[in-house]
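# step 3/5: fold
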Amino acid sequence: MKSIQAATVERVEGYWTHPDLPEWDEGVTRAECEALAARQGGEFVAIWFELDASENQIERYFDEGDNDISDWQPVCDKAGSFLLSIHDTEDGPVALFFAPKDKEAATEGK
């Protein structure tokens, strides 16, 4: 399996998916996701829009129906982490990051 590395992020209306991230369907389990992250030597970290965005951004998205979340800039505070995806779910947008567990890999990613 190809090792997932940081990639250039070019968001469209705030959304983006890493080119090496598998195309999962709605039936993928948390265990399958965690297993992939472990095989890659790290973990996935989810940052939920509803818990991270400003009150104005949340109101625009949920109350006004504005799906453009370009001004939301989620950040993962784990060393060496990088963005894998910002996508919509039935619970609202989520940013998915990969955080390496190897200290050497973590310092290379920053």
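# step 4/5: annotate
The first strand starts at residue 16 and ends at 17.
# step 5/5: archive (pending)
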